[in-house]
Specification:
Blueprint lengths: L2 E4 L15 E4 L10 H12 L7 E3 L4 H15 L2 E7 L2 E7 L1 H4 L1
Parallel strand pairs: 1-2, 1-3, 3-4
Antiparallel strand pairs: 4-5
Helix pairs in contact: 1-2
Length: 100
C-alpha cells in the first residue's frame, strides 16, 4: 500500500490526502526545531520503509520538510510532494536524479 508521510501530526484535516495512500505521521505535537540531529534520527527512522512511489506532504515546520525532502531525495532519487491547493491535495514530483 502506498504511503503519505506527514512531517507532524496536527489538528489539520488530512482526509483528502488518503486518496494517495495511508497516512504515516513522523512526529507529533511540539518539536524542537533547533535539535536537528535528533530530528534527523527520528525522521530517518520513520522514513526507512518509504518507497519511491510514496508521497511527502508539505506541512508543519520548514526544517521538518527540509530534512524529509533530503532523506527522500537521497534514498529514492526523487520526491513526490503533496501540496494543499484550493481545499484539496495535489501531487507534484521533483526528479532529483534527472537534474544531476
Amino acid at each position: 500500500m502506498l504511503k503519505v508521510f506527514v512531517p507532524n501530526k496536527s489538528a489539520h484535516n488530512f482526509s483528502d490526502a488518503l486518496r494517495f495512500g495511508e497516512l504515516v505521521f513522523l512526529t507529533s505535537g511540539t518539536v524542537n526545531k533547533y535539535a536537528i540531529n535528533s530530528l534527523y534520527r527520528e525522521l530517518s527512522e520513520g522514513l526507512q520503509n518509504s518507497s519511491e512511489q510514496d508521497h511527502l506532504m508539505i506541512s508543519s515546520l520548514a526544517i521538518l520538510n527540509s530534512i524529509c525532502s533530503a532523506i527522500f531525495a537521497r534514498k529514492h532519487g526523487k520526491v513526490n510532494y503533496l501540496l494543499f491547493r484550493d481545499g484539496k491535495y495535489i501531487s507534484r514530483t521533483v526528479d532529483i536524479d534527472a537534474l544531476i
